[in-house]
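re: that chain from earlier
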Amino acid sequence: MKPSSISIVPLFALATFYLQGTTDALLHHSKYKASPSDDVITGRYIVEFANQEAANPFVHSLSTSFEHDVKIHEQFKHDLFHGLSFNLHDPNPSLVTASSYDEKLQELFDHEHVTAVYPIRAIQRPELTAIPVTNQNENIAQTILPHQLTQVDRVHKELKNTGKGIVVGIIDSGVDYKHPALGGGFGKGYKVRYGEDLVGDKYDSNQPNPIVRPGPTPLDNCGAASGASGHGTHVSGIVAGSSANFTGVAPDATLGMWRVFGCTGSTGNDIIIKALLKAYDAGSDIISLSLGDNSGWSEGPDTIVASRIAKKGVPVVIAAGNAGQSGAFTVGSPSTGEGVISVASFDNAHNLVYKFKATGFSDAIAYASSQSGKFPSGDIVAGDKAVGGTKDACDPSTIPATVKGNYGLVKRGSCTFSIKSANLAKAGAIGVVVYDNAGGDAFTPSAPDAKVPVMGIAQKDGEALLAAIKKGKVSLTFDGKLSPVPLASAKTVSSFSSVGASYELDLRPNIGAPGGDIYSTLPRYLGSWGMMSGTSMATPYLSGSIALYLKSAKGKNKKGTYIMEEFQNYAYKAPVQNGEKAIDSPLRQGAGLIQVYDTIQQNVHITPGQFSFNDTSSNQYKTQTFTITNHGSKTVSYQISNNVSLSVVPYDLATSGYTYIQPINYTTAAAKLRISKKSIKVAPGKSVKVKVSVIPPHTDVKQHIMYGGYVQLKSSNKKNGLDLSIPYFGVVGRQKDLPIFDQDFPYLSSNSNGTVAYEKNETFVLNRSKKAEAYIITRLLSGTALLQGDVVDVKSHKVIGKAFPDQTYLARNTLNPTEQAQSIPWDGSYYKSGNKPIPVPKGTYEITVRALHIFGNPKKQADFDTWTSGHIRVTN
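^ sequence. v structure.
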């Protein structure tokens, strides 16, 4: 054995997932739907029934079988979901033996009325930092609002449409409804009329015994000392806030809020299901969720329930995620659900920033920070021995001693802001100034645990500061005042916004809305007003826009998918950077940035609103058909063409193989389209069908270039109808050909950190009397729908059972700390279908691990990546 040369920070997600005590038999049950998330909560499950009549007998059997060891959490008696969630503790051996425990579980879940069993996942509260704005005034408020980017200002002014009477149901962390801009109260007659607190202040799903104290109102009254960010209040203000100096998207809409987070921690997806069903039953016209994970798959009970609601005609609007810096395939669930609307974030036109003065500079330098802007004055020096490299302040050994007592200047990139700030603080720096690495403006570095001030500045300002530092002493002074400044990235996709597609190659995100640097309400305990950035902000913005649409005469009797298509048809297609002609990929912006006035006023509709040409392995998706319908009173005419976008380059094969590039790169390689009709006329009340076939770009199939663009319909007469477009994308190459396991993975290790690697020719000795375990360290280059492990007897060469229960719908690993790899423990047991874990006899074994390729057939061994360990000798 040898120390591992692989630089990883292991996850313990799979270890947690597998180590569930005597409940392992449940995980091995055929009806068990393993989670695509790494946040599975030990011993807690959701059971779905074929009908509600099965609930009472099941509860009786469960209680009888396990007495005090089981606790029923939620029961779902709803046409859209019949089921319950429960927590199963390890039994007292004197009451229930391990054997009978497993047998009873099998018997319960074998029942024909049990259709599925899911683990409960912990959904992390959105980790967004609020920047309080204490000097709120009309100038700041009106300048920072993004309504001009989306035509919401025209809807308010010209159409006198403020969304009155439309109900937007929000599922979030609660709301300070006593805020004057949110109505000052709760219930009938108030802006926040519907909802409740489903969990209470102290709820955290990750606790062994979560404290659940529901309340009749969804009030967020956590207090500043709790560390709560006021996320739900900020979201609520974006939808419908209203004051003398602030106007939400639909200021006269009615809100519902179902509080699913306590003041800190996470929530369980059984609580999300409960909130979805309650929001639906309350008559919400739109349901908005600014939460989720980065799994990329469309399975999971909360995702399924969201999809069922969407199919009933209620738009379900969900954040795409904030993992865009991690590359492609980072869109999260439940926004991947069929029929739901996945929302990307666009940057606002302005940001609120602080400014500092630097000696030798005539103009003050703008900076953004999540901490108070009133920092102590001090000198600034280079924060790394080679500032401007790729790993500034990521390695403590490269930090010069001169930072002690000074601010350290470093470039953004490679490691997290938390790591940079921690290393500089340890070296004695009094603060950290990070300049952008991609030509951007002042930005807010996320370093919630930083012990010193951390601020972000524009790249040009950072380079100018660095040049000045090299010439002599530079001092900084701060006044702590906020002021609005234009953003160079205005109306383009936010750098943090997650990148599609789903692993099933469905286009996600579907559309975009403003989410970068958004000003809105905060709880009064946080100062009432502030800034946040995230797809969490874009989601309520779109939800409010749909409220305006529904309020319009055109919105009557239009539901779900139709509404999404309407917004997609008229969206603004953004370039990668302002000033450039190249259009950004639909995998980042979906159809583009919403244009609400046009969507409401125009009378021509195209369905479907988007195309996926899938990959080049199948002809099934190569030809798509769209229908254009004229609901207006005048004939419309269009020229149809291919408006190509930049294509996404997911890999750098020469340097890092099939590890996804972070962030994505682009290429100009473009697909060609064969369009059945290059010009069309559509009379009032008529429809025309058009076929579109794709010819993918001629690029190396091994690169898996993700091409894209828009089927563009250019209007011949703008007075009769505006231009329309349909986003499309596809992949050159077969996704099935992508490797799942990274080079040098999996490997055996004697510890869960993976710091000691065993070679194939080495024997691992597993001494069970010392409760030792072998660890399989895995790193997934791509997501996999199925991960399996077999125990093979070396002597007989036969598989004796499974090393761990089958795992399904797993997300890929990234290069981010804590996301680079995962550890799977093996304690010398195996599983047979329907049985508890069985200790292997003393002897020598191998573990064979298989991961199914994307679109692979689980019945074909050739569709798996397969790895076999070296010998494991089990003793005692």
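Residues 49 and 125 are 29 Å apart (CA to CA).
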